[in-house]
Amino acid sequence: MKILHVGNLANCSYVMAKFLRRKGIEADLLLYSDSIRGTNAPEWEDEELTNGYPPWIIIIKRPPAPAMTIGSRFELLKSYVERFMTMRKYDLIHASCMAPLFVQFCFRPYIAHCMGSDIRELAQENSLKGKLMKRAYEKADLVFYPGSFPFPVDVDKYSPSEYDLGYDGYDFIIFHPTNLDWTYKGKDRVSTKGNDRFFRATSRFVRDGRNPLLIVLDRGPDVEATHKLISRLGLQKNVIFLPELRKKELINVINGSDLIADQFNARGIGGIGREAMSCGKPLLTSISTEQFMRFYHELPPVFNARTENEIYEKLVEASDSKKRRKMGKAAREWILKHHHWEKITDKLILYYKKILGLE
Does the domain formed by 173-338 have CATH 3.40.50.300? Predict the structure, then answer.
């Protein structure tokens, strides 16, 4: 059974392929050369890969933008043929994000793994690309919708440990690692993070006499707008901005913090949220109770909030250290039950075998 993973958003495909290989499955990962950057680069997840990738990570050049010259058209055709021939070598393709757009034409069984904006935004468009995305979902042997398939978590790598960040004089430390993305107001995009509601709620929390330290990662399309908002809210004394962190540094900051604040729009738990829960940290985020009950049959132990008032109320609740410790312990147990890498990888292998008629 030869499996190919394509579409490596936030290293999700890399992690799945890595765990499949731990289980003895011949799983490869296809990367486009221009997409290997930031949190989409395997070396961000596992720093030892900085010195070189294993042979099961295949890198090809992405097709160039369409142009009118004969030479550019030839390069475009050559790139498509290379991708097509590579994908044809596998028994099944696990296509994430936008990858199903091309994979649907490779005449191979495939899973379309939705990550969020691909199905919530692109597939809703009345455009050629949007229609092709819909077709890709219709033709797939199996579709994983956001939240329907638990992502595997390396519970040993992401585990509780003592780490002193060295910040004294605060009531407790809140870490907000989510991309700063909140000013977009168009109706065609629902993948923003709602950071501004969190900052406004935190400002109210501080005005009421609390003294938390808020650590924010200085990344995303709204960095400048966020700095201006923090200044207008008078939160400068309670906010520290950090640059993009390597994964080991990120884990240290998670373990050194008392509360992790994620996003407030997507209504689900993202990668950093799962990693924080695996480290035994309480998570403040927005989830859909209906969706989690449908797929998990129980709700995750998180501080669930969406509006500014709800976020404020959960901050007040989370100011109780005993409550935080209780939630953090329950969060770790939730991950072990629902996201342990071995359990999820075994389930994934079962799906593959069923699609290929091996089970």
Answer: no
The position carrying tokens 């309670």 is 238
CATH superfamily entry for domain 2-152+341-355: Glycogen Phosphorylase B; (3.40.50.2000)
Domain boundaries, the chain: 2-152+341-355, 173-338
Fold matches, 2-152+341-355 and 173-338: yes
Task: List CB contacts of 106: < 8 A, sequence separation 6 or more.
Answer: 84, 87, 88, 93
pLDDT digits 0-9 by tens, 248-262: 999 999 999 999 999
Q: How far apart are CA 345 and CA 9, in angstroms?
A: 18
Q: What's 283's DSSP letter?
A: E
CB 255 within 8 A of CB 279: yes
Provide the b/e sequence for 100-124 (b: ≥16 CB within 10 Å).
bbbbbebebbbbbbbbbbbbbbbbe
The pLDDT tens digits for 26-66 are 999 999 888 898 889 999 999 999 999 999 999 988 765 65
